[in-house]
Write a structure and sequence with these properties.
single chain, alpha/beta, 24 helices, elongated
Length: 714
């Protein structure tokens, strides 16, 4: 409760600061804002189509919240980007310079504001204004612009112009309406035409920026995939052409089937070769055996030129027939070759008959070594010789054919690995081609989806030219000035009060010193009511000390001070006079007149009468020298009925005061020690004595307010 009263008294003490200062500051704000500029508000609503839009890639509406939020954030950031606002700034300036009128206001800019812009525009920039075309004017300004602190066009956006700079245009507010497809854009300016034209331009420019960003990346991707598709397509065609040329050069139609046929033919020829080789060796062995039986007849037969000629003819025919039979197995459907084979077989048959006839005639004239006729052996010899020649011819043909097959193996072996390598390369290129083609189709689908989404960016609520200004913020500024000044003053005095070590009143004194305050005495003056206040304060002090008077033993009241000029002598005399008026036997002992505070007897005294033996009274009010000048014997403090420390209310509690007070508390032992505030303010004294004169109604209410006694009947 003391703390609450202390806070309330603190506020009451600085009441005039809290009332007058905020009022003065508020009046100054009112005067300074009397010509405050009014602003015009313009807004528009855009339908984005992001939430309910149709996605070409998936064929479904967009339901992914992350994608939706990201897309809407992108649109908002594009609207508020520097690039977009820079375009708006240039177009807005060009539009003002083309359509502005210095004589009257219009829907583009007020006349006064146009003249202001016209005054700051250099002559070389005015020459860039093409009154017939806004776009051409913007192109001229863009060509003139360069990043330089002296360039006017560059400075329009980067300086502090109220209509064209980034700081002003960044005040455009963009917000999503709930979780819908709608975006609301708000902008305010002190010129209705400026606010209106700014949003009109923003609506056109941000769509272009959005399309450039969205289409730019997708178009670049499409061009990249088209270039890659063309390059890979050429590689694929080149690889296929190379494989075709290689097959033509190596006479390859179907490599796998051809190699199978070669392997099958090689197996068949090998079987025929083994069969022919067996016949050849068998015939050769038989001929040698028969020739041994014939003896000289064999030599005769071999030397017969006609016989040898016919045998050579038979050998040649056998070779031809064997070749034709071998080739006919590969091309059995060739009619011409079959006819030739039949002709040569017929010739061979005739030649064999002639050879048999000639050899038989020659063999009939001779006998063998054993005496047997040679005709039998000659016929056997002829038969075996024909078989031998036939098998020999077949053997030579097959061996030649085997060499051809071996050449085919040598031919086909490297071709296979080469073809497979080229086919793998073609397959890889083909898969790359298909992958790029798929990516190209996806990119084109993405472009079409973006075109549809961009087409959905529509202006639902177009901006309208404002006719009325927005409610002024002047009231808010005035209220903020009053509250701010009040809070500042309150905080300032509160901090000063917390840092201040002035004793001032009971609560602060007890908090700072740690002692207990018995009462307070006002500052004595010569005012009309000072005497009455002094009397009432003396009465309170006397009554407060009366409870410590002992009826049958001497009562000793010690008046102590830490420093000088605290007024303890005056307070002591006031109490003594008050008690004497009421018939009490009281005597006051002052340290500088009734005894010496620096004498030997005082320093060695154990009781009051050791240094004042000639005094006799019921109550003794003993004034001691300041503790800062002289210490008091502890026994004298303990002998007293009550020790009263007198301190000026306006004094500052120092560290030295704290040390002396602590020492005093230790020395007084169990004797009562109180603090009495002197030269206190009237409000502080009233906290002990009650209301002091003058007793007027306003002061009574002030007293009740100060004491938080609003419901008191006084």
């Amino acid at each position: 409760m003391d703390f609450i009263q202390y806070i309330f008294r603190f506020l009451f003490r600085i009441r005039w600061w809290l009332i007058i200062a905020p009022i003065v500051i508020t009046l100054l704000v009112i005067v300074s804002t009397r010509n405050m500029l009014r602003t015009y508000h313009v807004d528009m609503t855009i339908y984005t189509g992001v939430v309910s839009g149709f996605a070409m890639e998936t064929g479904e509406t967009m339901q992914n919240s992350t994608v939706v939020n990201n897309t809407i954030d992108n649109i908002i950031n594009i609207i508020k980007s520097k690039e977009t606002l820079n375009e708006v700034s240039l177009h807005l300036y060009a539009r003002h310079m083309i359509y502005g009128d210095p004589e009257k206001d219009n829907a583009y800019i007020n006349a006064e504001n146009y003249k202001s812009v016209l005054r700051i525009t250099p002559k070389e920039v005015l020459a860039l204004i093409d009154k017939s075309s806004e776009e051409k004017t913007v192109q001229n300004l863009r060509s003139y612009e360069k990043q330089s602190p002296t360039n006017f066009v560059y400075g329009l956006f980067n300086w502090n112009h109220p209509y064209y700079c980034f700081g002003s245009l960044s005040n455009i507010k963009v917000q999503r309406l709930g979780s819908s497809d709608m975006l609301q854009i708000d902008y305010s300016a002190n010129d209705p035409g400026v606010a209106y034209q700014t949003l009109l331009l923003l609506n056109d420019i941000y769509i272009q920026q959005y399309q450039n960003l969205q289409f730019g990346s997708t178009n670049n991707a499409i061009k990249y995939f088209e270039r890659e598709l063309d390059r890979v397509g050429k590689e694929l065609k080149s690889g296929e052409d190379s494989l075709t040329l290689y097959n033509v050069e190596n006479r390859i139609i179907n490599y796998d089937e051809q190699t199978k046929e070669v392997a099958a033919l090689d197996k068949e020829i090998e079987l025929r070769y083994q069969d022919v080789l067996q016949k050849y060796r068998s015939a050769e062995a038989s001929i040698k055996h028969i020739e041994t039986q014939l003896g000289e007849n064999a030599s005769f037969l071999k030397s017969n030129s006609l016989l040898l000629s016919k045998l050579s003819e038979i050998s040649n025919l056998n070779k031809i027939v064997s070749e034709l039979e071998t080739f006919n197995q590969e091309n059995s459907s060739s009619t011409t070759r079959n006819q030739q084979l039949e002709q040569y077989k017929e010739q061979l048959s005739n030649a064999e008959k002639e050879f048999t006839s000639i050899s038989t005639d020659a063999g009939n004239k001779k006998f063998t070594k054993s005496g047997y006729p040679t005709s039998n052996f000659v016929s056997q010899w002829i038969e075996e010789l024909l078989i031998f020649e036939k098998s020999k011819a077949e053997k030579n043909v097959i061996e030649q054919y085997k060499q051809d097959i071996n050449q085919k193996y040598s031919h086909f072996s490297p071709i296979g690995s080469t073809i497979k390598r080229q086919e793998r390369n073609i397959d890889f290129i083909e898969r790359s081609y298909l992958s790029i083609l798929s990516s190209l189709n996806a990119a084109r689908l993405r472009l079409k989806s973006l075109e549809m989404n961009s087409a959905s960016l529509k202006l639902i609520n177009p901006p309208t030219f404002p006719l009325n200004t927005e409610p002024s913020k002047r009231k808010a500024y005035v209220l903020a000035a009053f509250i701010g000044s009040f809070t500042f003053i309150l905080g300032f005095f509160l901090i000063m009060d917390l840092l201040d070590f002035t004793l001032r009143d009971r609560v602060r004194t007890e908090r700072i010193t740690g002692g207990r305050v018995l009462g307070a005495f006002p500052l004595v003056g010569k005012g009309k009511y000072d005497k009455a206040r002094e009397e009432k304060s003396t009465q309170f002090m006397s009554n407060a000390l009366s409870q410590y008077i002992q009826p049958y033993t001497p009562t000793i009241i010690n008046l102590i001070s830490i420093g000088q000029k605290t007024g303890k002598t005056y307070l002591g005399r006031q109490v003594v006079d008050y008690w004497e008026e009421h018939g009490l036997n009281v005597q006051m002992l002052e340290w500088d007149s009734d005894y010496s505070a620096f004498s030997k007897e005082f320093f060695l005294a154990r009781r009051l009468f050791d240094f004042t033996p000639n005094v006799k009274a019921n109550i003794y009010v003993v004034e001691y020298a300041a503790l800062s000048l002289n210490s008091i014997p502890p026994l004298l403090l303990q002998e007293a009925t009550v020790n009263l420390l007198v301190i000026n209310a306006d004094s500052i509690w120092k560290e030295s005061d704290k040390l002396l007070f602590q020492k005093l508390q230790e020395q007084k032992n169990k004797t009562s020690l109180f603090i009495y505030l002197n030269k206190a303010s009237k409000e502080v004294v009233e906290s002990f004595t009650g209301t002091l004169p003058p007793f007027v109604k306003s002061r009574t209410w002030a007293y009740l307010l100060y004491r938080i006694g609003l419901y008191s009947p006084q």
